[in-house]
Design goal:
Blueprint: E1 2-6, H1 10-19, E2 28-31, E3 42-48, H2 58-64, E4 69-76, H3 81-89, E5 94-97, H4 102-113, E6 119-120, H5 143-153, H6 158-165, H7 169-183, H8 188-197
Parallel strand pairs: 1-2, 1-3, 3-4, 4-5, 5-6
Helix pairs in contact: 5-7, 5-8
Protein name: Putative two-component response regulator
Keywords: DNA-binding, Phosphoprotein, Transcription, Transcription regulation
GO molecular function, one term: DNA binding
C-alpha cells in the first residue's frame, strides 16, 4: 500500500514516516518532501491534522479530488460527528486517531483502503500520542500545545485557532496558558518570537482557495 504523508512541517512528516518504519513490508512511503504536492499515484494520502485546517476545508477537498490519490484519510484527535460528516461530504475517505499504535495505524489504513471500516477512533479513552514528532517536542511541549503555538506563530487569532483545530475557545486558552508556562513567555509577541526561533514556521507556505 503506497502512502503519501501530508503536512506543512518537515519534522511532522519525517516523524510519522519513522513511526511506520517497521511496516515497510505493508506500507511504502512515497511522499516525504514537505515542499511538494502529491505527484505520483498513491493508495492513501494521510493528512496529518497538526496545524492544518479541518477535514471540511478547501485544502482537504483539493487533496481528495486529486486523481492521483485513491483515498484521502484524516489523521487527527477530532472525532466530532458533525465535523466528520462534513469531511466525508468533502470527499474524505477515512478517519484514524493519533493515539493508535503504529501497527494499529497500518491496520486502520488497510481497512479503509479495503472499504471495511472507515472510522478508527482510539481503542482506549486517551489523548496520548504514541509516535511521530512535532516542533518543540524536545522543549517539553505536547503535540496539542505545539499545534496551538504553531498557529499563533503563523499569526492566527484565538477565534481562528478554534476554527482551525475544532476546539472550544476555553480549551484553546488553556493550551495557550500551559504552552506559555513551558516556554517561559508571558505575551503573544514573545510566543511568536520563540516559535520563529524554534522551528514553528511551516516548511511549506501555501494558500488554498477559501483558506487563503
Amino acid at each position: 500500500m503506497t502512502v503519501a504523508l501530508i503536512n506543512d512541517y518537515e519534522v511532522v512528516v519525517q516523524g510519522l514516516a519513522a513511526m511506520l518504519r517497521n511496516y515497510r513490508d505493508r506500507v511504502e512511503i512515497v511522499e516525504l518532501d514537505a515542499n511538494t504536492s502529491v505527484n505520483c499515484p498513491v493508495d492513501i494520502a494521510l493528512y496529518d491534522s497538526f496545524a492544518n485546517p479541518q477535514g471540511d476545508s478547501f485544502r482537504v477537498h483539493e487533496l481528495a479530488a486529486n486523481p492521483l490519490v485513491t483515498d484521502a484519510v484524516i489523521y487527527t484527535w477530532n472525532f466530532d460527528e458533525q465535523s466528520m460528516a462534513r469531511a466525508f461530504e468533502n470527499g474524505v475517505h477515512g478517519y484514524v486517531a493519533k493515539s493508535l499504535t503504529a501497527g494499529e495505524l497500518v491496520d486502520a489504513l488497510e481497512s479503509i483502503h479495503r472499504r471495511e471500516q472507515l472510522v478508527h477512533p482510539a481503542r482506549k479513552a486517551s489523548s496520548k500520542i504514541i509516535g511521530g514528532d512535532w516542533p518543540g517536542r524536545e522543549e517539553g511541549l505536547t503535540q496539542r500545545e505545539a499545534e496551538i503555538l504553531a498557529l499563533i506563530t503563523q499569526g492566527l487569532s484565538n477565534a481562528e485557532i478554534t476554527e482551525h483545530v475544532g476546539l472550544s475557545i476555553n480549551s484553546v486558552k488553556t493550551y495557550i496558558r500551559s504552552c506559555y508556562r513551558r516556554i517561559n513567555v508571558t505575551s503573544r509577541t514573545q510566543a511568536v518570537l520563540w516559535g520563529v526561533n524554534h522551528g514553528f514556521v511551516p516548511d511549506r507556505s501555501r494558500q488554498y482557495g477559501d483558506d487563503a
